[in-house]
Amino acid sequence: MKQTEHIINLDLPPKQRWSFLVDYKSEVDELLQCYLNDFEGADFIFESIDDYKRAVISADFMEEIEFISSISKFSSNEILIANLYYDILKFYLGCTAFAIETDGAILHSRNLDWWTDNNLLSSQSKIFDYQRNGRTIFKTVGWVGFIGALSGTKPGKFSVTLNAVLSKDAAEIAMPVSFLLRDVLDKANSYSEAKKTLEKTTIASDCLLLLSGITSSEMVVIERTPKRSATRGPDNGIVCVTNDYKLIENGNGGESELQATSCGRYDRACELVGAKKPTNANECLDVLKDEKVMMGITVQQMVFNNKTGEIELIKTGANNM
């Protein structure tokens, strides 16, 4: 079923871009409370957020956050912390993703796995269409109150999705990954420019980034720690990623419960796509729905058509638009 796409007008001042959220006040508060519940007792995060904000977060992003604060029951600092969820608590996230070429187009597919009460993150998932001069610049799949990107596409250019991973490298006072992805989707004008930025930029925490463009040669997984990077390309025209490093030496890094299933999901996704390469979004979704790929905590399933910018989004277990 076609999902409603909410337009973010980038020609407007930052404090006006999310004005439509006045119609979603209760949803914003419910989602923010969901994120913040997981920070209960972590007072050190709230004590240091002002210093981090001044050092790292752009004025435009802060203006967007301050507008959201103006229509919600939460302070701008609380909203910023909620937006930093991945960088602080990434061990709650799983995810499986793959990219393939079919009929001259690249299809970029992903499950977003994230535990949540009451199916909240699934039912309230939305597509955001960021525009300038009435033209789509990029799209993301996310939630109201969350201004970064975990999954996004720039029509005719590239798509990028984030998977969680853990290394032993120290965190950095640097750009949060979800904000970097939004910046790249907005400002990078090509796959190669996006790839270079995602490989070279110092970031706050570890991640795995599936980046795909519009030709068969434009598919990579960029393995990141805050300062290290390793990039692997496709095997037989397929590139898959779950939640473990394949190239980066990680010593005896920690492992979350989600990561413990990573290899099994990776092998199964590669097996399915290799045995019968999907030719359309529905066949990609069939792979994502496989019982050995999909998790009980999968909240979103999506397929990006990199050429057209079309997004097929399934809110797992949800009937809401």
From TrEMBL:
Pfam families: AAT (PF03417)
Protein name: Linear amide C-N hydrolase
Lineage of source species: Bacteria, Pseudomonadati, Bacteroidota, Cytophagia, Cytophagales
Residue ranges constituting the Peptidase C45 hydrolase domain according to the UniProt record: 160-291
Gene Ontology molecular function terms on file: hydrolase activity, acting on carbon-nitrogen (but not peptide) bonds
Record keyword Hydrolase present: yes
Keyword presence, Hydrolase: yes
Organism: Flammeovirga aprica JL-4
Domain of life: Bacteria
This protein's UniProt keywords: Hydrolase
